[in-house]
Design a protein that fits this description.
This protein is mainly alpha-helical. The protein has helices spanning 2-22, 26-46, 50-80. α1 packs antiparallel against α2 and α2 runs antiparallel to α3.
Length: 83
């Protein structure tokens, strides 16, 4: 049972990583990256590393995608300005 859980979470991580790579829009990439961070946090928890899972949850699922989204927003705002 434990091996099946690890394999299923690994498949989830692989699918999320592939989806993140295949996205063209940076905003969508950030959202899928957040889901990838969540899947990795679950994987670390299943592999009995809850401290690493909590750090991944905070950084990989929240902070990094938020910084990417804010950067994309700022770049898009500057593109719209006349020179």
């Amino acid at each position: 049972m434990d091996d099946a859980l690890v394999v299923s979470v690994l498949v989830l991580v692989a699918v999320a990583a592939t989806a993140a790579v295949l996205q063209r829009d940076p905003a969508r990439q950030a959202i899928v990256l957040s889901l990838l961070g969540l899947a990795l946090a679950v994987l670390f928890t299943v592999l009995q590393a809850p401290d690493v899972g909590l750090a991944q949850l905070a950084v990989g699922s929240a902070v990094t995608p938020l910084m990417i989204l804010l950067t994309v927003r700022k770049v898009r705002q500057r593109k719209g300005r006349p020179k």
